[in-house]
Specification:
Elements (H helix, E strand, L loop, with lengths): L1 E8 L3 H8 L5 H4 L3 E8 L9 E8 L2 E13 L3 E8 L2 E13 L2 E12 L2 H36 L1
Antiparallel strand pairs: 1-7, 2-3, 3-4, 4-5, 5-6, 6-7
Helix pairs in contact: 1-3
């Protein structure tokens, strides 16, 4: 399953980047995140940064351990998470539209190394894709509100 959403934010690119890379503050930015615990912090850069995120999903709390696998400072970062045979990859990308506006794009890809998870994903695919698209769009809307309120 692959999903991609974007939004335009009325703020310079560097301010958007600062907000999306301030992981410890994300429970104050994104309403779906109810807790975050930093597990590993690299000496420099973002690659290797690892955290446990608690979200409210489908009326229940869910925890995921995620880490940054790739980053181009001020451009994008990519994350990975693994849970019960499922592998999740996401990417946040910032693009200056002009000096005062930024396009923020979030992509998500999920697959599995487990046949059981692959079968469940095939059966639930459409529902899961709609739910994931809504969750990602809600996250971007929250980021947009936070950044624009502080600009």
């Amino acid at each position: 399953m692959k999903v991609s959403v974007d939004t335009e934010i009325n703020s310079p690119k560097d301010k958007v980047w600062d907000v999306i890379t301030d992981f410890e503050n994300s429970p104050n930015v994104i309403s779906g995140i109810i807790g975050l615990q930093v597990l590993e912090k690299p000496a420099s850069g973002l690659v290797g940064f690892k955290w446990k995120e608690t979200r409210k999903m489908f009326g229940k709390e869910a925890e995921e351990t995620m880490w940054i696998t790739d980053c181009e400072e001020g451009q994008y970062y990519a994350t990975r998470a693994e849970n019960h045979g499922a592998i999740y990859r996401s990417m946040l990308f910032v693009e200056a539209m002009d000096a005062h506006n930024t396009k923020l794009t979030m992509s998500f890809e999920g697959d599995s190394d487990s046949m059981f998870v692959k079968i469940i994903s095939a059966v639930m695919g459409l529902f899961m894709k709609k739910s994931m698209t809504k969750m990602l769009q809600d996250d971007l809307d929250d980021i947009k509100l936070y950044v624009e309120a502080g600009s």
